[in-house]
Amino acid sequence: MFDLAFSELLVIAIVALIVLGPERLPKVGRFAGLWIRRARAQWQSVKSEFETELADDELKRSLRKARDDLASARDGVVQGRAEMQREFAEIASFARAADESPALAGPALPERAGGGDPAIADVASEHNARR
């Protein structure tokens, strides 16, 4: 911080000893140490508060990004739901039209469609019954 060499510190100590005297020098040293400790503590307090504020800002940015991502995902789900409802309505209207008009129903399905699968055969017989 101050870049003082040992020789410079020695000169300062000798001048302080001459100016203050041997009786007052220990008191002044303790007093200076006390103020240095207080200054360091204050600096650490300011530094930790600053770091906390930076962490809070980063957390706020992260939450804002997560909220935006969630909103875009919600919008995608809403759009997908609307699309599915439109497609379902189209299929339902086509099915209703096919039930009403035999020409749109298509050809009859063979009774043994699906290679002998009973579930498929049931669907085929139901389809043929509607025709």
Word description of this protein:
The chain is built from three helices and no strands. By secondary structure, it is an all-alpha fold. It has a domain at 35-99. The longest helix is centred in the middle third of the chain and has 95 residues, at 6-100.
Beta content: under 5%
- Average pLDDT over all residues: 82
Shape: rod-shaped
Q: What's the gyration radius in Å?
A: 43 Å
- How many strands? 0
Query: What sequence of helices (H) and strands (E) makes up the elements?
Result: HHH
Which secondary-structure class do the elements indicate? Answer: mainly alpha
Outline:
This protein has 131 residues and is mainly alpha-helical. The chain has helices at 6-100, 102-105, 118-130. The chain has a domain at 35-99.
SSE topology sketch:
Layout lengths: L5 H95 L1 H4 L12 H13 L1
Notable features of this structure?
131 residues; rod-shaped; mainly alpha
